[in-house]
Amino acid sequence: MAAPLLHTLLQPAFPDPVLDAQRSFRAALKALAEPGVVQGLRPAHAPSPLAGLAEASHALCLALLDIDTPLWLAPAFDTQAIRANLAFHCGCPIVSARQNARFALLDSSQLHDLSGFDLGNDRYPDQSCTLLVQLPSLEGGRRLAWRGPGIQREHLVAVPLAEHFWQERESRNDFPRGLDVFFLAGHHLIGLPRSTQVAFHGGA
Amino acid sequence: MNAATQPRPRRDDAYNFAYLDEQTKRMIRRGLLKAVAIPGYQVPFGGREMPLPYGWGTGGMQLTAAILGADDVLKVIDQSADDTTNAVSIRRFFARTAGVATTEQTAQASIIQTRHRIPETPLTADQIMVFQVPNPDPLRFIEPLESETRTLHALKDYGVMHVKLYEDIATFGHIATAYAYPVTVAGRYVMDPSPIPKFDNPKLHMSPALMLFGAGREKRLYAVPPYTQVSSLDFEDHPFAPQRWEQHCAICGSEDTFLDELIVDDQGTQSFVCSDTDYCAQRVAQGRDGQ
């Protein structure tokens, strides 16, 4: 009975594994190099959504994860389908302890507590965890001014996030140590590197 | 010279796209994301052996291979010339292994791999510069131990960089460092901008283009994101000043570009020409000349 189960469990990945991984990476690179600017993936070059994993989230997993990148899954994503497909297509170890993860897949229910993720250290700040945060939408939140490298003056960005997230991020951001975040919804993504300063205090 | 964009050639499918295997590309790509998030910080990466020797741009090539896509248009320059051995062979390498279009025109390129120069034509937000870097660590000249320089970077302990510049002033009366002139990126990391002349340092500051740096032998990569503050180290009484020339280009007449000195006869007669061959040819095409 294993064959029919596998047949429904495993989904196709990128239509073109080499070039679509490159396209997804370039979207991620541009997202981090221009924080707050929405980047899009063309549907023809994105994988299909996978059991609760949006196209953009799925694409970044396929483009960036492999045997060298332990992944932490929020409970919402800890399903048999996601585990089986990431194991098959990426081969990434899935870890239960946050501090062992190089990447983490989160939904909005997790953003009030970012404790435990590796922030890197002063000598090797690049070893910090990268957060892939899937949201229902990238718009509709409070408009906040983002400043820093990659931003000419300031970007006004309205990612729908609770105040808690910004407090959590600020308390763990001690440059050069810190967390880099991709916000993902549908075929779109926004990058928030640790170098970006976000004015979230005050205002409604 | 100055050919228009070459259309996409046929890819040699005996190689993976752009030569490197996919796992190596992913490793470099993850490193590049961290490099962009921490401007000026040197990310270690597992540098691969490339089919040319260290010193010929293996670091830059690995970065180019990791970012290159089928729709990119690649320009490669060596000392700002498109027609030198290093530039021609790297351009042909990617034309063959990735089947990408190549160009000599700065404005047509989406990725520009460079050794020693930033083009004179202003860059745009849709372009990525890839620098070939011999010595990524600006502190290496004073401290050979990687463990020590890493600590100095961690502590933002850059006093020794100013000592080096001061020694120039004490010996020569001015800051004599003319290339690989150290810069501070986004107020934090001191970075070696690769052996570009200090003439090009101001082009790093608030550039709309993403700048990526790859050192193949030292296995380090780093980045300057677009619109990032990049300041050259200096002193209040000896401010940073790029090179200037009293001459103008003998071919296109330009007075504000980086000029190469040529000795044209046995009597030592000098002539000066633009180092950026594409920029110079564009000006000639517009009817400028140096006479």
Automatic annotation (TrEMBL), chain B:
Is Iron tagged as a keyword? yes
Query: One Pfam family from the UniProt entry?
Result: PhnJ
User: What keywords were assigned to this record?
Assistant: 4Fe-4S, Iron, Iron-sulfur, Lyase, Metal-binding, S-adenosyl-L-methionine
- What is the main EC category here? lyase
E.C. no: 4.7.1.1
Q: Which domain of life is it from?
A: Bacteria
Q: Which residues cross the membrane?
A: none
Catalytic activity as recorded in UniProt: alpha-D-ribose 1-methylphosphonate 5-phosphate + AH2 + S-adenosyl-L-methionine = alpha-D-ribose 1,2-cyclic phosphate 5-phosphate + methane + 5'-deoxyadenosine + L-methionine + A + H(+)
Does the keyword section mention Iron-sulfur? yes
**Function of the protein:** Catalyzes the breakage of the C-P bond in alpha-D-ribose 1-methylphosphonate 5-phosphate (PRPn) forming alpha-D-ribose.
Q: Which family does it belong to?
A: Belongs to the PhnJ family.
Question: What is the official name of this protein in its record?
Answer: Alpha-D-ribose 1-methylphosphonate 5-phosphate C-P lyase
- The source organism is Pseudomonas typographi
